[in-house]
Amino acid sequence: MTTNIMTTSNNEHAYKRIRIFDTTLRDGEQSPGASLEPSQKIILARQLAKLGVDIIEPGFAISSPGEFAAIQQVSRELHNVEIVGFARAVKADIDAAVRATQDAARRRLHLFISSSDIHLDFQLRKSREQVLQIAREMVAYGKQFVDEIEFSPMDASRAGREFVIEMVEGVIAEGATIINLPDTLGYAMPEEYGEMFRVVRQQARGGDKVSYSAHCHNDLGLAVANSLAAIRAGATQIEVTVNGVGERAGNCSLEELVMAIETRKEAIGAVTGIVTSEIYETSRMVSRAMNFPIAYNKPVVGRNAFQHESGIHQDGLLKNRNTYEIMDPEAMGIPRSMIVLGKHSGRHAIKHRLSEYGIMMDSSQLEDVYNRFIEKADVLKLVPDSVLIGLASETTETQHDPYTLLDLQVMAGSADSIRTATITIRERDSQEVKSYRGTGAGPLEAVIHGLQEAIPVDAEFEDLELHSLSTGEDARGEAIVSIVHHNERYRGTSIHKDIILAAAQAFVASCNQLLMRAK
Prior knowledge:
About 40% of the residues lie in helices and about 20% in strands. It is an alpha/beta fold and about 525 residues long. It has 3 domains: about 15-290, Aldolase class I (TIM Barrel, Alpha-Beta Barrel), CATH 3.20.20.70; about 310-395, Recoverin, domain 1 (Orthogonal Bundle), CATH 1.10.238; about 405-519, Alpha-isopropylmalate synthase LeuA, regulatory domain (Double Stranded RNA Binding Domain). An 8-stranded parallel barrel has the order 3-4-5-6-7-8-9-10, surrounded by 8 helices. It has a 3-stranded mixed β-sheet with strand order 1-2-11. InterPro entries: 2-IPM_HCS-like, 2-isopropylmalate_synth_dimer, AIPM/Hcit_synth_CS, Aldolase_TIM, LeuA/HCS_post-cat, LeuA_allosteric_dom_sf, LeuA_bact_synth, PYR_CT. Keywords: Acyltransferase, Amino-acid biosynthesis, Branched-chain amino acid biosynthesis, Leucine biosynthesis, Manganese, Metal-binding, Transferase. Pfam families: HCS_D2 (PF22617), HMGL-like (PF00682), LeuA_dimer (PF08502).
């Protein structure tokens, strides 16, 4: 097999094309609590294809009838990506993988068996000779059905180097076309992992005639670094998961690896085919489907990845984004919200945020708002836009919000009945106060339905996030509501001890944001 090379028109460098092998739907789903329904797998597979991954491993066909059916539908539907049938080095697994992927336009088998002594002694209870024989026989068996066979000596980074080479030689002789050297336990250091690729490629007979892949886990936080080391050592395929989901601490994160390559392509000498504008949406879809929240400080897609509270940073960003950002969040589909307001924020950031809502102030008014803001920030930590606008209204004695939530009443309970919310709203221009009712299966749904009746905004309710900010009887919750209007996303936030009220205030804030910015 040959390595794909592409050049860019901007310079004379030749960049190695790295193929992205996504295993979110197989290895990622093995993360405890991340189980997906077959219908969810199909939806996510479509998004992964839209994202531009080269290869999708949609599951483990022999594990269940639902898994088999999902792999089968993905194979039939997605013709622009290669589909992988994953199997242990066992005939029944291979048969199931072959049947599930038989309708794929392009497919491969991915076979694995352990290679480290600790796995052989305590898990397989087999000798090296027995494992080598099984590996060769099963690759030869699989070769009857497919041309492309990827082979993984599991736990290769903790195995004897000579045995890994012997196993690789054996499976290449039987027809393996792609060799994956996995760091199954996330144990390797980058220099060790890269060296393993160099040694195997150079010393294994036939090693120069196959492609190489890296599959890294993140137990020591080195999955991305090890994957980059593998690229430098000759790997042309990297196996990843969206949001880095996977067993234990997870797998190499797709978005982190891709953006490391994209941002430092000159240093790494490589490119991928990923459509970066789809990164954020893919991340959100996987997070929702698996019910796995994304850590605030998660690189690339975390909430804080492109947010800045420090006054010094905020001032620099307002002058030139490149002062404190090395990537463009909007190019990845991430909504532009680079400045969050807290006690470290300065006057420039507050003035800028208010100006986004059309609120202009003289220096004395701004100073008054700033002093009020600092008092709030000590209590709230992060000050939502709705609170800032409220402070501006107090200073200028002018109501800036188009709509104000005056009262909310809603009942919760254990009875299986429809919940009803009563909402009282004041409209700024007319100063009319009106009450509205909403119903729903739960109190939040009833509140949102009532607010949609109260505020005439042509927008889609997209998302509600709820976060606990403290513990104990006086715990506060943060609600973040996103709405979409003409493909633009508006986010409102609120913090309150009553989480239902916080959600209602956040929805009103998002609608006010839309109306004020439109005006």
